[in-house]
Please model this.
Amino acid sequence: MTKQISILGSTGSIGTQVLDVAERLPEMIEVVALAAHSNVDLLAQQALKFRPKLVCIGKKELEPELRSLLDGSSIEVLAGNEGWIAAATTDYADRVVVSVAGTPGLMPTLAAIDAGKEIALASKEVLVCAGEIVTQKAAQHGVKIVPIDSEHSAIFQCLNGEDVKSVEKIYLTASGGAFKDKTTEEMREVTPEQALSHPTWRMGRKVTIDSATLMNKGLEIIEARWLFDIEPENIEVVIHPKSIVHSMVMFSDGSVMAQIGLPDMRLPIQYALLYPLRYDSGLPRVDILQVGSLEFSAPDTKRFPALKLAHEAARIGGTMPAVMNAADEVAVQLFLDRKISFLEIARLVERVMEMHNPISHPSLDEILSADGWAREQTSALTGGIGIGSNL
Model:
């Protein structure tokens, strides 16, 4: 049976790879809706190639340009938040891919769940900020959330057919990012260009910086906590530079299951799109005989304090993860804009977390309010500071 998919965030790193997988499997995947924030040229190119029923551009001021580019195509053109919701809930789609950077993916995800759509989730912030609300709503509607992140896809596959109650520990593997071998002193002077040079994965700018600070793994701890109903203290991050083992699960009898593959996001994407089916789409295979040794080590939270901050946010829960995530989004952009140094990213996040009084079991409005508060505080803390300041 053909999967009819809507892609939220089609012009980003994950979205473009989703379309690559869809192009490989035209008899199994039909693209029926596309949505992007502002890359109107690429969105139009994608629409003309895949001929979806509708497209949405997030920035309303770009709607006339998109309409002009698609003139005569018969593709419905939408814009703004209403367009995002329409793309997430369209009757044409049975599975919605959420690959929107940051918190903007939250409301469309909730709308898609309300509409009974299956969710292929790449936006970890959705569960970081509102994991309790999202997973409860998914359970109420009988909606399956299949993760796209390589680590969570690995765990999902290891748990397939297993009793989650028998899980003793989850090991989230991490490449270590661009600076895994650098000292704190060396990291004081790193540039955005250096931080964006990931040794293994091809990802978006925000995710790549988070990988360099290890905040990405911290976010994944919180995501795994909600996806698999596992307490944060039972989730451990291990450094695995080769990125061949994508994550592992230890069970109560001491057995450890791992999922192994090349560091290619198209494999977990395909699994999420076709689940529970597996199909040969010609993706490259790992050659076990060429892998050699597999090395694992503990992360250094002194050099990479963001990981410790995220574990603390997971332990506290409530609105704290949303605050941490919002502060990190602002801090990463400040670093990319060369307004703060690399090490100041984690310091800013820590300061904002210290200022926050978390709310337990928050409503969606309380989460959104905490998110906005954290962004304001992070920006306020950076007023007048420059590279090398001591926060």
